[in-house]
Specification:
The chain is of the alpha/beta class and 204 residues long. 38% of the residues lie in helices and 13% in strands. The strands form two sheets. A five-stranded mixed beta sheet has the order 4-3-5-6-7. It is elongated.
Length: 204
Amino acid sequence: MNLPSKVLEQVVDQLSSLPGIGKRTALRLSLNLLKRSPQEISQFTQSIISLKENIFSCTVCSNISDEPICFICSNPKRNPAIICVVEDIRDVMAIESTGTFKGLYHVLGGLISPMDGIGPQDLNILPLQERLSNNSVSEVIFALSPTMEGDTTNFYLFKKIQGVDLLITSLSRGVAFGSELQYTDELTLGRSLEQRQEFKMPHL
């Protein structure tokens, strides 16, 4: 793509580095920004800087937050005895949108995937074990995407925490195998959560 300005080319390159944005879309966005007032551009760039500098990872569950402890973990109306284990923050948002879950979360930050070089040591598994060690939790829900990586992570977690005196459950199979939790419709996800079943290791 031949552009008449090196500055414009740099902006296009930066925008097209974002997932799902190709060069043509990046060019259209760049030209739109060019038409905006200096004040609008200042607000736009400041919001991006603030995104990086002023968002915390919750010290309890690893959800994103404007404070050291997120609004879910700090909400006294939530049930701290139930922890829902999810892959990332998008899954927290998906489950919260159903309005059915009133417990707390634990964000793993990914799934075990040897093909991608992601092992248990790369996930927030040790903090989960520490949260379960004080015996105040009665149930852990595995709410990971029903994929090969999700199932592998479920099995690993089960082995790690099965000695703890609590109920371990997983979503019912209303969510189709191979799909990602964040893209599941609210009704299906909410029903799968409400109809969760005790997690059992498969017989090999």
